[in-house]
Amino acid sequence: MSYLQPDFSHGGDNEAAQSSNTTSDLNGSGEGQLTTTVTNTENIKAGDTVYKVGCPDHNNDSVQYALITEPVSELFRIDTGGMIRASRDLKPLCASSINFKVTCKDPKDSTVRRVSVKATLDGANRQPTITGINFNTDVAENTTVGTTLATFSVTDDDSNISCRLTSTPAESTQYFGLDHTQRSIIVKSKLNYEQPQTRHTNVTVTCSDGFCASNLAYVYIRVTDVNESTDNATGRGGEGDGGRGLDGEGGREGGNRTANTTVVTTTERMEEGHSEGGGEVEGRGGREGESERERAGLKPLQKKTGGKRERQKERKAARQARKDKKKEKRRERKQKRKNKERKTNTEGE
Q1: Residue-range domain boundaries for the chain
Q2: Which Gene Ontology terms of cellular component type are present (predicted)?
Q3: For the chain, how big is the Rg over CA atoms in Å?
Q4: Residues 6+ apart with CB under 8 A from 86
Q5: What is the CATH code of the structural domain delimited by 31-121?
Q6: Which terminal residue of the chain has fewer beta carbons within 10 Å of its beta carbon, N or C?
C-alpha cells in the first residue's frame, strides 16, 4: 500500500520565510497547519513560485494537487509538482494575508492528505485609506455653486490616486461633485429644496491606485429650505401691461408696481390696468377700451412718458371727470322730474 508523505520545503523564485510550526503526522488522517511569510509580494510576477508543498509518494505514484485560497483569489495556482505559483502579477493583490488550502491525492488508492498554509503577505499593495469625512451636514438651497461642503484626505503608498463620487439617489450627482485638486466635495449646480427626491442625499467617495480600491467614505447631505421672497403680482403686472391692446409695449413699468388695485368700473379698470399692471383688460381689446373712455368723456390713453406724479394726476383727473359726469346726470334727472311735475300741475288747472 502506498502512502503520502508531505514535503514542506520552501523554494522557488520567491524565498519564503521558514514556517513557524509543523503539521501533524500526515501518514494517517488529518490536516497539517503551517504559517509562512511571503516577502516583496507586490513585485512577484506571473509564474513566480510563492510556496512549495510537496507530497511525494513512496511508491513513486503520481500525485494530484488541488488548491483553494481564502479569501478566494484567481492570482494563485498549484502545479503538478506542488508548487504554488502566481498566475498573474501580484500588484493587484490588496490583502495582508491569505490562506492556501492544498489537497494531495494518490489516485491509485484514494489516499488524501490536506495541508493548510497561512501566508503573511509582506510588501503587498495596500488599499488607499480615506479619512476626514463620514458625517451628516445641512446645506441651504441658496448655497453658492462651487462651495466646499467637505474635505477629505487619502493615504496610500502610490501617488497616482483617482477618486470618484456616487450618490443615492443617483439624480443628486447633478448637484454634488468632486474637486479632485483639493480633494473636496462641492456644490456643482444650484440646489432646489422644492425637488423632494433630492432633498436628502448620501454621497459616497471611493479612491483607487489603479489596483486596490479604498474604503467607502460618505457625507449625508440634507438640503434645507430658504424663504424665497417672490412678488407674484409684479410678474403678472409686467406681462399684463405688455398691452396687446392700447399700449402695445413691454409692460415693464406696470410690472414694477403692486398690481393690487381695487377694480370698480370698466373705465377705472382700464386706467388702473394701464398704469399698475392690470394688463388683462387692455390685452383683450384696446378698441373696446377706447370707446369706453370716449363715453366717459376722457381723452384716449397716451403712451406713458411721465413719472409717478404725472400718472397720479391723470388718475385724479379721471376720477374727478367721472364724478362731474355723475353729478351732471343727477342734475339732468332732477330737472326732468321738475319739468314733469310742472306739466302735471298745468294740465290739472
Answers
A1: 31-121, 129-224, 232-323
A2: plasma membrane
A3: 46
A4: 44, 45, 46, 47, 48, 50, 75, 76
A5: 2.60.40.60
A6: C
